[in-house]
């Protein structure tokens, strides 16, 4: 079959903005100098020697992280930008859904704008007139089509732009992350439109972060990483590889953020143990004492505000932002999260999780409680407990040791969570309290809502039937 | 170059549509609406006539009667020229999203600026015609109307179109790289206006200024309009006009070439 889109060793180099080099840019533009010759700090290789061939009638999804060159690649295919080197060939009429409603004039009516936009996309006035009703119906704007576009809501604006673009009847449809148009129902309509395109043997190239969309709709996926094709082919395989890579990166990121949060509260020099024991605060609440009415405060969720303090701690721990308090004889020296695969920051919902604390007592202590609580991103305490509530009577603690809090099944919904760990006296005086210093992320295939996922199952009487669940 | 022109021709419908959009959008929402196309030159004329008949009557000597008509002959083409340049110096930046997001020959944008202003100019012509008819009936024209001279008018308009296009292409392309041009241009156009025989006749220019005036392309356009529509006698300025036509053609060619050269840099700079 003929290739609808063919890229041969295509590169695109953008010039970085260098202050005070305006005259230079004009000169190079006039001389037709290629930016590939520019010094590396001035050049940005957005697309790097990409060769690909998209057969006619195929639907290809391009995935990749922000800044990986997806949109540039699409613009190259659309002919909006020219490649720095290499060749781009596209057969047939192209419609690029890159910016919806580009060229809409706010002062004039939707009706006139449909014509202008259509002409801009390469239709003749007669072709637009023929499709006009269909376009308006698709955009669901029949009542507003004669109002000036400036009175439209952003959703109406996008819908109209989308409707015009998909009615161009292109041979090659280039779509850049525009499916966030309108409500669920409208998105479905857009998908139907794409499916119809596909049925009619048109070629579609889709740039999106919606991986489910690629898996459902595309015959082929292409993973772009730093301007190069990392891998391409079967969507399931490509997406799996991509997700794996994203998670690795996420893991590094969380580890870095955690590291930073801890460094910020770690007193410089000695361990901060030179201060006198903290005055007894009226109940620096151990985790079990969360008053129901206590609304989660926004600042709790903020990573930004990290307090380095070694005093007795704030009045109410659960309102405090990240920090570390207490200078008792027992220190928590290290906290590690582990599942079966080892230590990390990303865990599957339902997996085993162990919170492993390395503690050290500088003297013999007979009054001690270990506590753990988990908070979600909004600062709501998902669960909190300590050894005292669970009737562990302390006898003796001395020297270095390890405390492990084992969770058999991490029944939390997908999201980012933070951890408080503490060791304190039974009357609440802190030895060492780590507030929100450890972050982990829970991944889940299920898009359920809330915080907690109880182990559950659905049953139905025989008259209520469903299709066999997929995959 | 030829390929570019062919592509431009293919996009003629887009140019037409965009010119229509400009015209429709400009007065949308105003009460007088399209009538402003006629009212604007009239009001401008009123201002200048007031200034030079009531406040500064000595300025123009005695023989320029009717002064309003004389003024109109220069003011109308000047408005077309100056507005086109002001608009086109900004047009690529203002329509950045089109250049970045839609496949679209960018030169269409300055061309549309020049053409939509030309349409305003053409709408002003009937007003000028009405003035002419009024003064003719009143017997206050400096000489008898000579319809033969009017055949020169399209030629003058064409030369002005070419000259304006050339300037617009150059300005629009350069402003992308040097945004300073927009501010500079504003003042430059004011200077240019007073350095052209629009509010005063060429005859008033002292001998020292004459060679400079000869170098001013717009002076020749203004003189041409005035000779055709205001002064009597045959159109004697045609040699200058011919020379200007050659210059305008060359300027447009050079401007287009420059624009084409800088084309690839637009999407990155706007």
What secondary-structure arrangement, pairings included, does this model have?
The complex is a heterodimer of chains A (471) and B (270).
Chain A: E1 3-15, H1 22-31, E2 43-55, E3 59-63, H2 70-78, E4 85-90, E5 94-97, H3 110-120, H4 125-139, H5 154-166, E6 172-176, H6 184-199, E7 203-207, H7 211-217, E8 220-225, E9 228-233, H8 235-265, H9 298-301, E10 307-308, E11 323-325, E12 330-339, E13 342-343, E14 346-348, E15 353-365, E16 369-376, E17 381-386, E18 397-407, E19 415-424, E20 430-443
Parallel strand pairs in A: 3-7, 3-8, 5-6, 6-7, 10-11, 14-20
Antiparallel strand pairs in A: 1-2, 1-4, 8-9, 11-20, 12-13, 12-15, 15-18, 16-17, 16-19, 19-20
Helix pairs in contact in A: 3-4, 3-5, 4-5
Chain B: H1 2-10, H2 12-27, H3 36-55, H4 67-94, H5 96-101, H6 108-138, H7 152-177, H8 180-194, H9 210-215, H10 217-229, H11 238-269
Helix pairs in contact in B: 2-6, 3-4, 3-6, 4-6, 4-7, 4-8, 4-10, 6-7, 7-10, 7-11, 10-11
Number of strands of chain A: 20
From the N-terminal CA to the C-terminal CA of chain B, the straight-line distance is 24 Å
- Termini separation of chain A comes to 32 Å
> Which percent range describes the beta-strand content of chain B?
under 5%
Which runs of chain A of at least 5 residues are low in confidence (pLDDT < 50)? 268-310
Count of individual domains of chain A: 2
Task: Summarize the amount of helix of chain A as a percent range.
Answer: 10-25%
Shape of chain B: globular
Q: Number of DSSP helices of chain A?
A: 9
Residue fraction in strands of chain A:
25-35%
Biggest interface and which pair forms it? A-B, 32 and 28 residues
What is the chain-wise order of helices and strands of chain B? HHHHHHHHHHH
User: How many domains of chain B, as an integer?
Assistant: 1
CA-atom Rg of chain B in angstroms: 19 Å
The main pleated sheet of chain B reads as:
none
Order of helices and strands of chain A: EHEEHEEHHHEHEHEEHHEEEEEEEEEEE
The secondary-structure class of chain B comes to: mainly alpha
CATH superfamily of the largest domain in chain A: P-loop containing nucleotide triphosphate hydrolases
Shape of chain A: elongated
Mean pLDDT of chain A: 82
